[in-house]
UniProtKB/TrEMBL annotation:
This is Elongation factor Ts. SUPFAM superfamilies: Elongation factor Ts (EF-Ts), dimerisation domain, UBA-like. InterPro entries: EF-Ts_dimer_sf, Transl_elong_EFTs/EF1B, Transl_elong_EFTs/EF1B_dimer, Transl_elong_Ts_CS, UBA-like_sf. It comes from Leuconostoc fallax. The lineage of its organism: Bacteria, Bacillati, Bacillota, Bacilli, Lactobacillales. Associates with the EF-Tu.GDP complex and induces the exchange of GDP to GTP. It remains bound to the aminoacyl-tRNA.EF-Tu.GTP complex up to the GTP hydrolysis stage on the ribosome. GO terms for cellular component: cytoplasm.
Length: 291
């Protein structure tokens, strides 16, 4: 029988499994929702899905390079303890290798990629979830390609809590890695001023014009002071204008130029950035249980 998108959505909402897994279960169960749930439970998927309401905001980032392709990934867990164990690290490497080889368009496409023994990447993640007892999530990834005239710089900081991947034209791999190290440490948002959206600059200008220390000053003085502050703001968020982390006497642009190179692109991931972590009060929880 034909399986509708509504049925797939309902099963996903009930079990938190991937779209393809939900569809397969419904096909096998001839559209019977309860039977499909039982099939997923038998395969161990529903057990992992029960953890779906937890927040996976810890984990690790990782960069893998294969020839002229590189992938940077973020794999989340619920605690940093699990993120440090062997099973999680093996999964992280498997995820990165699978993604860099296949170059899927998004996370959903990545999860259905074949890995081995008829398993998908999602199957392997669920299996590790069952071993660790924690929800594990592939949050995001980026696959970057370069030419033979370019170099990848890859760097992971603090055991993988932050990773950076940079592409430099010219220079050498060592220079590219130094730039990636700087990106990991200093967290620039853009390569150069020209990349900063006009609305970002306009917003910062609006904020600065309302600064209390500018109150009562003539408009021409205000404009001049704000102009200086905008320049400083841009220097803080753009990679090339930042002071190089390994030598504060030169900017990143000066360092790269001294190596006959130029920065083409970069990606920086920090574990859990943008995820609202659930804060728990252990003492209150214990007191509530005892009460």
């Amino acid at each position: 029988m034909a399986i509708t998108a509504a049925q797939v959505k309902e099963l996903r909402d009930k079990t938190s499994v991937g779209m393809m897994d939900a569809k397969k279960a419904l096909v096998e169960a001839d559209g019977d929702m309860e039977k499909a749930i039982d099939l997923l439970r038998e395969k161990g998927m529903a057990k992992a899905a029960k953890k779906g309401d937890r927040v996976a905001a810890e984990g690790m980032t990782y960069v893998t390079v294969e020839g002229n392709k590189a992938a940077i990934v973020e794999l989340n867990s619920e605690t940093d303890f699990v993120a440090g164990n062997a099973e999680f690290n093996e999964l992280l490497r498997t995820v990165a290798k699978t993604i860099v080889e296949a170059n899927p368009k998004d996370v959903e496409a990545a999860l259905v990629l074949p890995v081995a023994d008829g398993q998908t990447l999602n199957d392997v993640i669920i299996h590790t979830t069952q071993i660790t007892g924690e929800k594990i999530t592939l949050r995001r990834f980026a696959v970057i390609e370069k030419t033979d005239a370019e170099n990848f710089g890859a760097y992971s900081h603090m055991g993988g809590s932050i990773s950076a991947l940079a592409v430099l034209e010219g220079a050498d791999e060592s220079t590219a890695k130094d730039v990636a190290m700087h990106i990991a440490a200093i967290a620039p948002k853009y390569i150069a001023d020209s990349e900063v959206p006009a609305e970002v600059i306009a917003h910062e200008k609006e904020v600065q014009l309302k600064s209390e220390d500018l109150a009562g000053k003539p408009d021409n003085i205000k404009e001049k002071m704000v102009e200086g502050r905008i320049k400083k703001f841009l220097a803080e968020i753009t990679l090339l204008d930042q002071d190089f982390v390994k030598n504060g006497d030169q900017t990143v642009a000066q360092f790269v130029a001294s190596k006959n190179g130029s920065v083409k692109s970069f990606v920086r991931y920090q574990v859990g950035e943008g995820i609202e972590k659930k804060v728990t009060d252990l003492a209150a929880e214990v007191a509530a249980q005892l009460g």
